[in-house]
């Protein structure tokens, strides 16, 4: 009995009409807080946080670099886990979630690489270096692009789902490599100062805008993902009766 | 104000970094809405033509 109750939500989520309706209702609850947190976080990061004693005002790139880099990894983990769920439980909506993650993750990986480059130039004196952290982040971008390209190569959605899922799951090994690259190898990139075990190593007035932005970007991802998942479900379920009913036609 | 825009001499790096990030945020909203709009239009067309046939 308990086991039944515990798994009901999982089975409900696996139903395309239920997930479609839930996504429609939930989107504004993520989108508006995300907008407020991101605008507030940018203002706090640019105007309220004190300048760094070593990097001066230049450190303010942290408020776009760390959130975009966080997104690049968090979206990939979401994609990999969704792909795994889709493969193991043969759940169509999980594959729809994985497919929806890829363009979002790829775009934020580009942003993380570009903002990192714009931070590296004044601080390290170079736009790019084949350093473990930078190289593994670039590989992350290729994993996203490979996943999208592989999916696009199949006409049959089910085969695209399975092939894409395998690539996404194998690519998950790159995630800890990116995170620990600055600890395992001698890297030009600095070690983690926020997303680490123990207390963050940056002062509160600098940390607060960053935490606000990390939350804001995460909610932004949820909102954009829900919109994309609805589009994916509509495409996949195009022959289903419930769609006509849901659209009121 | 101009001191704020100058960002202690780092303006040439800070503002493009924020610009790219804001662009990616805005593009994600546009792309997501675009794909939903296209999917909705296709679904409406299909269900309308299915209604005609029956």
What characteristics describe this protein?
heterodimer, A: 249 residues, mainly alpha, 9 helices, B: 54 residues, 2 helices
How would you describe this protein?
- The complex is a heterodimer of chains A (249) and B (54).
- With 249 residues, chain A is mainly α.
- Chain A has one domain (61-192, 202-247).
- Helix content of chain A is 78%, strand content 0%.
- The longest helix of chain A has 33 residues, at 16-48.
- The mean pLDDT of chain A is 92.
- Chain B is an all-alpha fold and 54 residues long.
- Chain B has helices at 2-6, 11-53.
- Chain B is rod-shaped.
Mean pLDDT of chain A: 92
Strand composition percent of chain B: under 5%
**What's the gyration radius of chain B in Å?**
22 Å
* Largest beta-sheet characterization of chain A: none
The poorly predicted ranges of chain A are none
- Backbone CA Rg of chain A: 20 Å
Beta content of chain A comes to under 5%
What's the end-to-end separation of chain B, in Å? Answer: 67 Å
Q: Which consecutive residue ranges of chain B, at least 5 long each, have pLDDT under 50?
A: none
What oligomeric assembly is this protein in?
A: heterodimer
- H and E order of chain A: HHHHHHHHH
Round the mean pLDDT of chain B to the nearest integer and report it.
90
Task: Summarize, please.
The complex is a heterodimer of chains A (249) and B (54). With 249 residues, chain A is mostly helical. Chain A has helices spanning 2-13, 16-48, 62-89, 92-124, 132-152, 157-171, 174-184, 204-236, 241-247.
Question: Secondary structure elements and their pairing?
Answer:
The complex is a heterodimer of chains A (249) and B (54).
Chain A: H1 2-13, H2 16-48, H3 62-89, H4 92-124, H5 132-152, H6 157-171, H7 174-184, H8 204-236, H9 241-247
Helix pairs in contact in A: 2-8, 3-4, 3-6, 3-8, 4-5, 4-6, 4-8, 5-6, 5-7
Chain B: H1 2-6, H2 11-53
């Amino acid at each position: 009995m308990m086991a039944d109750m515990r798994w009901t939500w999982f089975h409900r989520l696996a139903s395309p009409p239920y997930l479609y309706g839930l996504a429609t209702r939930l989107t504004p609850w993520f989108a508006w807080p995300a907008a407020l947190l991101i605008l507030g976080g940018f203002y706090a990061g640019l105007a309220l946080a004190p300048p760094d004693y070593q990097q001066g005002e230049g450190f303010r790139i942290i408020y776009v670099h760390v959130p975009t880099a966080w997104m690049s990894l968090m979206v990939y983990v979401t994609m990999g886990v969704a792909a795994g769920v889709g493969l193991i439980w043969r759940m169509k909506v999980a594959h729809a979630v994985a497919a929806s993650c890829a363009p979002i993750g790829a775009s934020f990986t580009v942003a993380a690489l570009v903002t990192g480059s714009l931070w590296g130039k004044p601080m390290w004196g170079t736009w790019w270096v084949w350093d473990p952290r930078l190289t593994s982040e670039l590989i992350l971008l290729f994993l996203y692009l490979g996943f999208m390209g592989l999916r696009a190569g199949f006409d049959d959605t089910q085969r695209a789902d399975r092939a894409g899922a395998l690539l996404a799951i194998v690519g998950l090994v790159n995630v800890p490599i990116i995170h620990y690259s600055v600890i395992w190898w001698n890297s030009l990139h600095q070690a983690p100062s926020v997303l680490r075990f123990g207390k963050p190593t940056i002062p509160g007035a600098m940390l607060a805008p960053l935490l606000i932005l990390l939350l804001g970007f995460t909610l932004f991802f949820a909102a954009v993902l829900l919109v994309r998942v609805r589009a994916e479900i509509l495409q996949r379920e195009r022959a289903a009766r419930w769609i006509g009913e849901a659209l009121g036609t | 104000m101009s001191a704020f825009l100058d960002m202690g001499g780092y303006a040439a790096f800070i503002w493009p970094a924020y610009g790219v990030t804001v662009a990616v945020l805005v593009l994600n909203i546009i792309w997501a809405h675009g794909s939903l709009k296209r999917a909705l239009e296709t679904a409406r067309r299909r269900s309308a033509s299915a209604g005609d046939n029956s």
